[in-house]
Amino acid sequence: MIQEAGLAATHIPATDGQLDMAALQQAVGDNEYFLGVLPDGSGLAAPLIPGQKAPMQLGRQMLAKLAGVPERADWKACTANPEQEKEAADKFRDYFKPYDIMPAAE
Questions:
Q1: How far is 80 from 89, CA to CA, in rounded Å?
Q2: How many CA atoms lie within 13 A of 36 on its CB side?
Q3: Fewer Cβ atoms within 10 A, N terminus or C terminus of the chain?
Q4: How far, in Å, CA of 89 to CA of 84, rounded?
Q5: Residue 7's pLDDT band (cuts 50, 70, 90)
Q6: What's the rounded Cα separation, in Å, for the pair 58 and 19?
Q7: What are phi and psi of 63, to 5 degrees?
């Protein structure tokens, strides 16, 4: 996927489960970069050359491909009906309620 976008990715190792920042700096220098962090803490970094165009949905496309659902790379294909959206929003709200610093509106 990264190669299809015209980018060259470098594997950045992890040290004690954390991305090796020195290796990242060596790989990308002072350029902007795309970074995908893997479950083991390592990552794939692709420097973005000034003036080079990279797809805005590159991260979503890569994740969808790695998850085995490439058809979900297009956000328009990830819609739910209003009932499903309300249910998901309610679950999200309930889950994070203990961390909400704003008082509930009465």
A1: 12
A2: 18
A3: C
A4: 9
A5: low
A6: 20
A7: -65, -40
pLDDT score, position 92: 94
And the tokens for 63? Answer: 């994740």
**Cα 34 to Cα 65: distance, rounded to the nearest angstrom:** 16
32 phi-psi bin (left φ>0, alpha ψ -120 to 50, beta other): beta
- Does the structure show a pLDDT above 70 at 22? yes
Question: Which residues does 36 contact at the CB level (< 8 Å), separation at least 6?
Answer: 43, 44, 45, 59, 62, 63
Q: What is the pLDDT at residue 1? A: 54
pLDDT of residue 69: 85
pTM for this one?
Answer: 0.57
Share of the chain above pLDDT 90, in %: 32
